[in-house]
Amino acid sequence: MANQKGGVAKTTSVASLGAAFAEQGKRVLLVDLDAQACLTFSLGVDPDEVESSVNEVLLGRAGIADVRVSCDDGVDLVPSVIDLAGAEAQLLPRPGREYVLRTALEDVRSEYDVILLDCSPSLGVLTLNALTASQGLIIPMPCEMLSHRGVGQLLDTVTDVQKILNKDLVVLGILPTMFDGRSNHAQEVLADVGERYGLPVLSPPIPKTVRFAEAPAVGRSILSTSRTSKGATAYREVAAALTKRLAKL
Ligand code: ADP
Ligand code: MG
């Protein structure tokens, strides 16, 4: 899940789709690659009390199996910590720095049906690690955004990654988020966005609802705090569609 813009619902989508895949009986691993540690926090893990994190994994001091924790939503989490920004700086001079996460995930890949990576709002070395480790990219995008220029830049990066680092990377599509069906503008953005970038648009769009703001405070995703809300239902439907799509990768 990547988009270098902040606040587009990357973290919310990783937590919610992760819970939806777990409801389907899948074995799910979520990886928090953001130094803000919002995913870690929202799954009920205090980033300040984490002993070892994705930081140690990226620096080669621990394996994923050493740092992962099980969460109430039925998913495993590789937590983040605030000093992840330091890991990014330490990775930079290393040869093969873009392959560190991919290599670390190899050890646990067979234990999971789905692994979701929550990227930070940047196109830096951690996001390159995520794109290098992934089979598929989902780009969450609010339907109300006037400027999509950042998406062009992200897609340029994807093209570079496909050429140099990970030729198998597939752009699964844009995930429209924070969709207000009553707004004409949102309807227009939704109709236009896939064509503009030549990308699939995942369906259904995720509706805008205050339920999402409430869920992280209790350390569980909207799928368990607000089981029948339209936001939870939409994420379940997107997860079901993705299950079919991923089977063809
Ligand atoms: P990112 O990870 O891209 O920075 P977040 O997932 O943290 O974005 O979401 C940013 C904010 O938007 C959060 O406060 C979150 O609760 C809120 N949010 C996410 N999805 C929705 C939605 N569908 N409706 C309303 N608010 C949402
Ligand atoms: Mg985030």
Automatic annotation (TrEMBL):
Residues 1-170 form the AAA domain. Transmembrane segments: none annotated. InterPro entries: AAA_dom, DNA_Partitioning_ATPase, P-loop_NTPase. It holds the Pfam family AAA_31. This is AAA family ATPase. It comes from Pedococcus aerophilus.
